[in-house]
UniProtKB/TrEMBL annotation:
It comes from Micromonospora rifamycinica. Coiled coil: none annotated. PANTHER family: BETA-LACTAMASE-RELATED, BETA-LACTAMASE-RELATED DOMAIN-CONTAINING PROTEIN. Residues 22-373 form the Beta-lactamase-related domain. InterPro entries: Beta-lactam-related, Beta-lactam/transpept-like, Beta-lactamase/esterase. The lineage of its organism: Bacteria, Bacillati, Actinomycetota, Actinomycetes, Micromonosporales. It comes from the Bacteria. This is CubicO group peptidase, beta-lactamase class C family.
Length: 384
């Protein structure tokens, strides 16, 4: 019989079903440590956490425990991009070369910024070998992207740009603002909103971070050389874990560098509050206007990827994962966000004025239903 977990925090009475599912994730679905936070109409209505942050020491998960959230980072960068659009500093349909002239080499001159966000640029992997030190230094990856020929004619297909997405969008942000994306996010969003969310973890927060536990081996792993080069940056690091089961992103150097497509560190509240602020009044008017949310929730790509596993029905907007039943159902057609390797999920929805964040340290693989069961419970609590 599974040990009953110590669950802490609160859930408003209306959200009891979501609290039940969160507890069941521990008793029936292998959860080690996790947190879930929900804002509705700018108010925090669910804030639950429990379990163990570091199984090596037994350190408990607290209200302030952050963890690497992997590709939830992509949604953070997309929010930053839409802020620049609203400021009149970025046009998603302009060529990348307007902001980053050197990008246009080797057949890339006509690629619009939007295709960087929609995984259509043909740059999911790089031919140039890179070391981990080079990946963490930023500039070598940018130079490798500039020298890269697209792997297909841009705009004609899509494949998930697991890692390169971060430098592609991040360098556009840097060229416009003069700041690396982590610094821009900190100044424009994290500090004003009071988020415990970082893209480039401060040294003072290192000991608070939860320890990620590798997922069990996939009995039928998807193998594609391009996808493998893309997710490991050509072997610069193992992803998600090395042969000994050590999750690469537990490395303090990787967390401090803020790998821009996968390296954000956040609490559940940090992610939920960010998305809540996008669609409701949290610390002032909503960050994203109606036009931005309308644009963000347009389905831009779907179907079989050029280099990817069999299609599961996922739908992508400009930088965001959208409501994608049965693979990743959110609340509905106005939902936009991103999930992250191992089980993390964050999204906003302006129809319900919801911001949702769920973070974990027991990574799981195929068949992981923890986040989907939480969102299904949230839909039922909201009357959907």
């Amino acid at each position: 019989m599974a040990t009953q977990p110590q669950i802490h925090g609160h859930a408003d009475e209306r959200y009891g079903r979501l609290a039940d599912v969160f507890r069941e994730n521990f008793t029936a679905r292998g959860e080690i440590g996790a947190a879930v936070t929900v804002y509705v109409g700018g108010h925090r209505v669910v804030d639950l956490y429990g379990g163990t942050a570091d199984p090596r020491t037994g350190r408990p998960w607290t209200a302030h425990t952050p963890v690497v959230v992997f590709s939830c980072t992509k949604g953070i960068l997309a929010v930053c991009a839409y802020l620049l659009v609203q400021q009149g500093r970025l046009d998603l349909d302009a060529p990348v070369t307007r902001y980053w002239p050197e990008f246009g080499q080797h057949g890339k001159a006509d690629i619009p910024v939007r295709w960087l966000l929609t995984h259509q640029s043909g740059l999911p992997a790089l031919d140039r070998p890179l070391t981990l030190d080079e990946v963490l230094a930023w500039e070598p990856v940018v130079k490798a992207i500039e020298a890269q020929t697209p792997l297909w004619r841009p705009g004609t297909a899509h494949s998930y740009h697991a890692m390169t997405y971060g430098w592609l969008i991040g360098e556009v942000i840097r060229r416009i603002t003069g700041q690396l994306p982590g610094a821009f996010f900190r100044d424009a969003l994290a500090t004003p909103l009071g988020l415990r969310t970082w893209l480039g973890l401060p040294a003072a927060e290192r000991d608070a971070v939860a320890w990620n536990v590798a997922p069990p081996p996939d009995p039928e792993p998807f193998v594609d050389p391009v996808a493998d080069r893309g997710i490991t940056m050509g072997g610069a690091f193992a992803f998600p874990a090395d042969d000994a089961g050590l999750v690469s992103f537990n490395d303090p150097a990787i967390q401090a560098a803020g790998v821009p497509g996968a390296g954000a560190v956040s609490t559940a509240d940090g992610l939920a509050r960010l998305y809540a602020a996008c669609v409701s009044s949290v610390a002032g008017p909503p960050l994203l206007d109606r036009a931005s949310v309308d644009d963000a929730t347009v389905v831009r790509v779907r179907g079989q990827q050029r280099h990817g596993p069999p299609d599961t029905g996922q739908r992508w907007g400009s930088g965001f994962l959208l409501h994608s039943p049965p693979a990743r159902p959110l609340l509905g057609e106005r939902s936009f966000g991103h999930d992250g390797a191992g089980g993390n999920l964050a999204f906003g929805d302006d129809a319900h004025q919801v911001g949702f964040g769920y973070v974990v340290n027991q990574m799981q693989g195929m068949g992981d239903e923890r986040a989907n069961l939480l969102t299904a419970a949230l839909r039922s609590c909201l009357g959907g």
